Amino acid sequence: MSEGDSVGESVHGKPSMVYRFFTRLGQIYQSWLDKSTPYTAVRWIVTLGLSFIYMIRVYLLQGWYIVTYALGIYLLNLFIAFLSPKVDPSLMEDSDDGPSLPTKQNEEFRPFIRRLPEFKFWHSATKGILVAMACTFFEAFNVPVFWPILVMYFIMMFCITMKRQIKHMIKYRYIPFTHGKRKYKGKEDVGKTFAS
Known about the structure:
Involved in the retrieval of endoplasmic reticulum membrane proteins from the early Golgi compartment. Its main location: membrane. It comes from Crypturellus soui. The chain crosses the membrane at residues 41-60, 66-83, 145-162. Keywords: Membrane, Transmembrane, Transmembrane helix. The structure is a single chain. The chain is an all-alpha fold. It has a domain at 49-90 and 111-170. The chain has six helices and no strands. α2 packs parallel to α5, α3 (65-83) packs antiparallel against α5 and α3 (65-83) packs parallel to α6 (147-171). 5% of the residues are buried. The mean pLDDT is 83.
């Protein structure tokens, strides 16, 4: 085996057939992702449909509760990253170098920049659901557990995590959701005009 085989090249210096196939497959996949970018509602409807199909499959098979629990924890972590600002205000509290969230009404507006953008959130959530769905086809992932304990533990962890996130949002006064473009009022003209 030559050194070129490990990087996708054949003996003659040209890319191997397998390397070209997977490169082309990756390009097609990226093209579909790029085309789907502006269709936010459609993307999320498809993802919700996939999650609904997954839930029906788990319900009908009466198993794969560990996989479902792992999927729930993964989606919760994605959601928390989606709600969190890119630059944590608690770390920026002491330093004055860099942007921070406005804390007063008259302070300059800085847009909320997420740690996990919406598109990456959707893409990761969809991939997670598809991986969990693929796991339901293998009996090795069907570990027998008492599922009500997993449900209770997930609900408890969800409540604790969201309580901490909401306290953080209240303390540093940011809202991770905005609707439409913000409108500003200029200063009212209270002075007299100069006549020459």
